[in-house]
Amino acid sequence: MKRTYLIRMGYLVELDEERGEDEEYFDEQVFVGIGEDLISQKSGKTLEWTHASSLLLDPASSNCGRCENCGQWTTDRERSDAIAELCNGATVDGRLLCDDCLPKDHRWAF
User: Fold this and answer.
1) pTM assigned to the model
2) H/E element, 16
3) pLDDT tens digits for 56-71?
């Protein structure tokens, strides 16, 4: 009996707008490249691409930001609009920290 698994992956991609890297570039180059990397593994398994999506990480309008200690992208899990695909984090004393940099006794600390 065969089973089908949905594999969800996340990538953080920085585009350089000055070099013309925009959403069209992203769709044509990045998504295609990821698909080619998966297929080139030649594992004998059938991979069928079903969908792709992207989300612009904008700290001014979304619950995300760079950890003020290490710089990793993170989301404040104590807010209702947390971005599930990002590293868990929280705001402590006005500073957004990822789970690795949170105080060890914090409930979201790793």
Assistant:
1) 0.69
2) none
3) 899 999 999 999 999 9
